[in-house]
Amino acid sequence: MKLSTALFLATTVGVTAAFQSPSLSRTVRSINNTNQQKKSNVGGGSVKSSSAMWAATMDGTANDVDVAGGVAGRRKKTKQERLELASKGLQVHVIGLSIHHAQVEVREKLAIPEAEWNEQSNIICSTGQVEEAAILSTCNRFEIYFAASDAHEANARVMEYLAERSGLPVSVLRRNIFMLEGDDAVWHLMRVAGGLDSLVVGEGQILSQVRQCHLHSIEEDGCGGKVLSRLLNNAVAAGKRVRSETNISKGSVSISSAAVELSEHMCMQDLNLPFSEARLAVVGAGTMTRLLVTHLASRGLERIAIVNRSMQRPQELQEQFPDVDIEIALVDQLWDVVGKSDIVYTATSSTDYVIDENLLEQNGQTGGRPLMLVDIAVPRNVGPGSGKIDGVVPYNVDDLKAVVAKNTAMRQREMIEAENLLREESDSFIGWRESLSAIPTINQLQERANMFRQEELKKCTRKLSQNDNFTDRELEAVERLSRGIVNKMLHGPMAHLRRAESVEGKQAALKELSSMFRLEDDESGRGGRRRRR
């Protein structure tokens, strides 16, 4: 018998014997047989665990958030560290405010510009109880998605952050906040990305905003991590599918279009004027204004005045809409434009009121001349006292619900189809998340297998290397063979562990593998300890 053949046989027998307990071979065969029977189910199914909406509670005081070692002090975790952390039971949570749960006065207190999303996420993570965080702040919602292993402590820290940032009494936050965890948090984000949780069902802007949230979270200074980056990526994929595979995004599907619908519907009642004859102005020249102009132009309105801090963006809009007569004015000419308009839409990012009661009084808006103010900005651009002025009729985003109700009724059938698609993406993420619990056992099993392989290989090579005919090339060949044998032996058990389709099934598989391979005793076979054969 050749030396390489003898060594191969000796190594095979040694490695196999090192693993086997009396019932191991039967158990491994059983698992492999089970895998063969379940091949048609590979990748299918998902694990679901329900959780209820929590009541937001605090002790009545808001402690300062400890930001020591914040953005600058946080070391970026390696890919392996993020994976190991994710496998230790990090749960997904979301705490936030939305147009469905909170008044605009509360939402504007917590609104965060996109440029600050990562900075604020790092502040939240620096509290020590939150491992990953991502912020989604839009005109209609403010949401913090985060991953943590201790739900109670993590939620307490995030609530402290909200109280500190907003300066609002805890009692006010408690009435307006919503909190979800686990599968409920995952499902909420899927519905958000799909446009099903929007004021206007199916609107497309939110998908772009969720995509930006994902991109920011995975930047160098982001705080996304393994779990949230995967979740947000799945959410973006879900939103894309909803819009490409259903008709839910057809028609009026944005806050801007709802604002135009509202003003068109109320024009005769509030102004005693047909909408087609109304003189229109828009304050601001960002994305919302572009959408406003799009929807106004689609209704045949060809003259619009735009007031902005600079000329660049309004001029870009002039180029984008050559068939619309766009008049441009700077902010110091604000009243010149407002004073000769019938409907004024406000859509700026200003944190101060652009139009308020004082401005209207100072400029003579007290004679009862009809003026409709449609404020679609958060924080609000139109002061709450504007409605006290005779003839002025103000609307804000909360007033768009009547318009939305009509659109929602027409989209009920599409919503059912959309939710089926969202459920697939939600199940995909949940299945991936549950599979992470198997990683420590798989790693331990591989390490133990390699330890036994090296022990047995060392014994054989020590004996056979005394022969002058034994070459390094033969040793390398047998090394590869021994590694291949171990990998093939472990493939079935590890695949069985990954494919468990329920929490109970996965726990049972983990316990079974730990027992048969004696993984619960990490020191078995080490340090000269004698293993029973």
From TrEMBL:
Task: Quote the catalytic activity from the record.
Answer: (S)-4-amino-5-oxopentanoate + tRNA(Glu) + NADP(+) = L-glutamyl-tRNA(Glu) + NADPH + H(+)
Q: Which domain of life is it from?
A: Eukaryota
For the keyword NADP, the answer is yes
Known InterPro entries for this protein? Answer: 4pyrrol_synth_GluRdtase, 4pyrrol_synth_GluRdtase_dimer, 4pyrrol_synth_GluRdtase_N, GluRdtase_CS, GluRdtase_dimer_dom_sf, GluRdtase_N_sf, NAD(P)-bd_dom_sf, Shikm_DH/Glu-tRNA_Rdtase
Annotated region Disordered: where? 29-48
Q: Where is the signal peptide?
A: 1-18
Q: Which residues form the Quinate/shikimate 5-dehydrogenase/glutamyl-tRNA reductase domain?
A: 275-403
Q: Which GO terms describe its molecular function?
A: glutamyl-tRNA reductase activity; NADP binding
Q: EC number(s) on record?
A: 1.2.1.70
Q: In which pathway does it act?
A: Porphyrin-containing compound metabolism; protoporphyrin-IX biosynthesis; 5-aminolevulinate from L-glutamyl-tRNA(Glu): step 1/2
Q: Which UniProt keywords apply?
A: NADP, Oxidoreductase, Porphyrin biosynthesis, Signal
Q: Which Gene3D superfamilies match?
A: Glutamyl-tRNA reductase, N-terminal domain (3.30.460.30), NAD(P)-binding Rossmann-like Domain (3.40.50.720)
Domain Glutamyl-tRNA reductase N-terminal: residue ranges? 95-246
Coiled-coil ranges per UniProt = none
BP term (GO), one: protoporphyrinogen IX biosynthetic process
Q: Where is the Tetrapyrrole biosynthesis glutamyl-tRNA reductase dimerisation domain?
A: 417-519
Entry's HAMAP family? Answer: Glu_tRNA_reductase (MF_00087)
- PANTHER family, per this entry? GLUTAMYL-TRNA REDUCTASE 1, CHLOROPLASTIC
Q: Which family does it belong to?
A: Belongs to the glutamyl-tRNA reductase family.
Q: What is this protein called?
A: Glutamyl-tRNA reductase
Organism placement in taxonomy: Eukaryota, Sar, Stramenopiles, Ochrophyta, Bacillariophyta
